[in-house]
């Protein structure tokens, strides 16, 4: 997992085919709770995860229209494909980010 340090965010996104920007704030309990869950994203082949401290990088939050923390934005090949805000367990976070799918249930 990478930590955003103020570099050109668009350059970071362009340089990675599939990236999740994880916006967090140390003062927010849901963000602290996600510290146990979010590292599981590192196990996804080819996915880059970058933590962005929302309190320190307000212009980046504004650029991506982040209105709350924790927020996750998945960008695949330059396009935002998923936005997730709030606390979720590992499975729900992966599904909401489009990293895994739920098998369809056959109906009779």
User: What is the CATH topology descriptor?
Assistant: Glutaredoxin
Tell me the number of structural domains.
Answer: 1
Shape: globular
Structural class call reads alpha/beta
Structure description:
By secondary structure, the protein is α/β, with parallel strands linked by helices. It has one domain: Glutaredoxin, CATH 3.40.30. It has helices at residues 9-14, 29-34, 58-63, 90-96; strands at 2-3, 18-24, 48-53, 71-76, 79-85. It has a five-stranded mixed sheet with strand order 1-3-2-4-5, with no helix packed on it. A hairpin with a 2-residue loop joins strand 4 (71-76) and strand 5 (79-85). The chain is globular, with a radius of gyration of 14 Å. The mean pLDDT is 92.
Question: Concise description?
Answer:
The protein has 108 residues and is an alpha/beta fold. Helices cover 23% and strands 26% of the residues.
Which properties best describe this structure?
Glutaredoxin, 5 strands, globular, single chain, alpha/beta, 108 residues, five-stranded mixed β-sheet
Topology:
Elements: E1 2-3, H1 9-14, E2 18-24, H2 29-34, E3 48-53, H3 58-63, E4 71-76, E5 79-85, H4 90-96
Parallel strand pairs: 1-3, 2-3
Antiparallel strand pairs: 2-4, 4-5
């Amino acid at each position: 997992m990478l930590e955003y340090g103020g570099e050109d965010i668009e350059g970071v996104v362009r340089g990675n085919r599939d990236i999740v920007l994880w916006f967090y704030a140390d003062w927010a309990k849901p963000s602290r709770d996600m510290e146990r869950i979010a590292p599981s994203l590192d196990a996804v082949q080819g996915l880059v995860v970058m933590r962005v401290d929302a309190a320190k990088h307000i212009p980046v939050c504004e650029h991506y229209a982040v209105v709350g923390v924790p927020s996750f934005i998945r960008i695949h090949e330059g396009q935002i494909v998923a936005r997730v805000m709030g606390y979720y367990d590992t499975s729900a976070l992966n599904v909401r980010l489009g990293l895994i799918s739920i098998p369809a249930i056959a109906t009779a």
